[in-house]
Amino acid sequence: MKKIFVSLLTVATLVGCSDNNENLIIDDNQPVPIELGANTNSGTVMMSRAVINKDTPIEGIGIAGWEAKQGKVDYTAKTTWHTHITTTASPTGANVEWEFDQATYSSEPTDYTYMKAWYPCGPYESGGKPTLADDNKVHFDFTHQDTKYQKGEMDVLMADVVYGNKTDKGKTKTLNFQHMTAQLVFNVIKGEGLDAGTTIDKIVVKGISNDAPDENDVFYPSGFDLTKEFTDSGAILYEGVTEFEVPGITPKTQPITDKLTPAGRPIMIRPFESSTFLVDVVTNKTTYENSVVTLTGVSKMEAGTAYTIKLTFGQAGLTLNATVADWKTGSGEASFE
Length: 337
Fold this sequence. Notes:
Layout: E1 3-4, H1 8-17, E2 35-40, E3 45-47, E4 50-52, E5 57-69, E6 81-88, E7 94-95, E8 97-98, E9 111-119, E10 137-139, E11 157-164, E12 172-179, E13 182-190, E14 200-207, E15 218-225, E16 236-241, E17 244-245, E18 261-262, E19 267-269, E20 276-283, E21 287-294, E22 306-314, E23 317-325, E24 330-331
Parallel strand pairs: 2-12, 13-22
Antiparallel strand pairs: 1-8, 2-7, 3-4, 5-6, 5-9, 6-8, 9-11, 10-15, 11-12, 13-18, 13-19, 14-17, 14-20, 15-16, 20-21, 22-23, 23-24
């Protein structure tokens, strides 16, 4: 049975209305439940190739706990427990629902439970119980029938470590989730002189350089390394390719009109260590190779940022306009002739 816990605000209200002494009592013979809340750094979260708006549940979040003396936790050691939780996309805080048994703190008053949470959870058993490799790494199965696991289409989230012990009875620990990738969104629009009937047939992201074509230049998330700190770039595992085709574009089916229209689905990748990257754009009329997208005002891409690329097609060629939206605000300019 799923167990639901109220948010920190509600807990504070209940404590204020009850007997003060009652809330100071710790029963050494009874398990102390771990109560959790969750924030995301945006009211919008990407999941399963679609935008989840504020107040929409996010299911299949992995969470693991390690019991240790304060400040002595070893994340390479076997977890004390791991399971799934569900929460709601919210920048201001939301309840957390345990998918299976509720986790509890250690009965030893000097032991602390350190917790890490991530999304999506990764592999799980046939009965729905989560699995975690002995090396505390999570690897996505891109062959799984669950459409959540699509290469480059997952908004991977991680929360910084929270910890506590049995003296935290009745206190809500808040998981602060962050977007760990950059998001690219492509839109197309007709410009002056474009031939009628021109369709968008393909968009390919090629990385930041053409000088070393044999190197993997575009990286999409493939899992998590839970032994790493939240701020460590190695906490996200990636697989790399020289070219990444934007999914969801069927050749010769989407006319480029004077109405700005999305082309394909958003992709989530490791941020480039650069303010520029290359794309190939194919229509049913011509191909634009190695078009340079330049983000103004920044020295490199950032995680948690959505970059919207506007492709304008006209007689003079292809013009690109880049803006930063959704997760963080800002703007950029780019052009190609």
